[in-house]
């Protein structure tokens, strides 16, 4: 594999006029891969034994997590008959990240990621089994689902940044990009299998058993974490306890274009583009009238595209800021177009393209943020990333529920794609004015060809 370094296409430090002193040494220039890796290295991160163990347990856990998400949203829709109530469910699950997410990053930087995840996954197991007991006994009400969703969100404040950063400890810097792509592939494979299984369970035995399975899967993750060989993990020395660590982490992120611009675009996409549970539940229930099975199918279509995108991301030759900007713009356009589809077949096909494009954009932004942040502050940087990713959905869920209830689900889909596309235009113009992106128009075969560098 041939590599070179670049500080112009992918800036890793802010200009000197904007530099803010921090206790962290500058990040090394990002490697720009000039050749695609050979096919035998597509999953090179899985050659690391610890990462193989982690991935095996994570695949089961992600499948069960998607099952619970679909079953939970459909359960609330059955209990209330309201798209707004489904939006509230999404908000309850992600609001804690919006409120406390940055503090989660400080905790993750200070303590063992493996230990933290064993605690969080055990808590998830208890919450899932509790929700299963309420549902199977017939005593569940919407407010109970909201309460458990909120408690789950509180645990996620620690679990999600720990899940992001532990990958570095498992594989080290050398295979980090590949490990991030493999992790995304596992997440999306679970997203393809989980909703389909959830649709079958909802039709056959109801939502309760999906919650039981998720509880057991969380227990399995605890077991796999206990089997990791700690002697082979890359230890990250925790920063000393001192005041102002949270502010220092934020200053660090704000003054690096390869962190703050992906964070901005992910924030907009989370608020508007990641509100698909609200939209798809309504499409299945009122537009195409295909019920729980159709809702599971729509989620699986997105996951099929996303899994394809995750696999393609392992073959990506370049990792640049423009990839993120263009990716979110294309994803937004595809999602808005899906709202115009008159029948279920073209709608489902477009969902596949939305999933593919969204995953390529999200994997690029995740990789760029992680690789351009110093290891000593990566927990806080990733907590900011996860805050906007999950906290944005806490805002977007109720907003999209209101738009669907007040106008129509078709308008909701147009808004969900149009706003991220607009954000990409704003980011592109801002970066172009700073000289970090350039638009070139050339004539080729008597037709104009536009490229961004």
TrEMBL record:
Q: Which InterPro entries match?
A: MFS_dom (IPR020846), MFS_trans_sf (IPR036259), TM_effector (IPR010290)
Task: Note the topology in the membrane.
Answer: Multi-pass membrane protein
Segments of skewed composition (Polar residues): 1-20
Print the keywords alphabetically.
Cell membrane, Membrane, Transmembrane, Transmembrane helix, Transport
**Domain (Major facilitator superfamily (MFS) profile): residue spans on this chain:** 42-435
- At the top level of its lineage, which domain of life is listed? Bacteria
Where do transmembrane segments lie in this chain?
83-108, 115-136, 142-158, 179-201, 207-225, 259-280, 292-312, 319-338, 344-361, 382-404, 410-432
- Main subcellular localisation: membrane
Q: Where does the protein end up?
A: Cell membrane
Region span, Disordered: 1-31
What PANTHER family does the record point to? INTEGRAL MEMBRANE EFFLUX PROTEIN-RELATED, STAPHYLOFERRIN A TRANSPORTER
The molecule here is called: MFS transporter
Q: Which organism is it from?
A: Frondihabitans peucedani
The opening ranks of the lineage are: Bacteria, Bacillati, Actinomycetota, Actinomycetes, Micrococcales
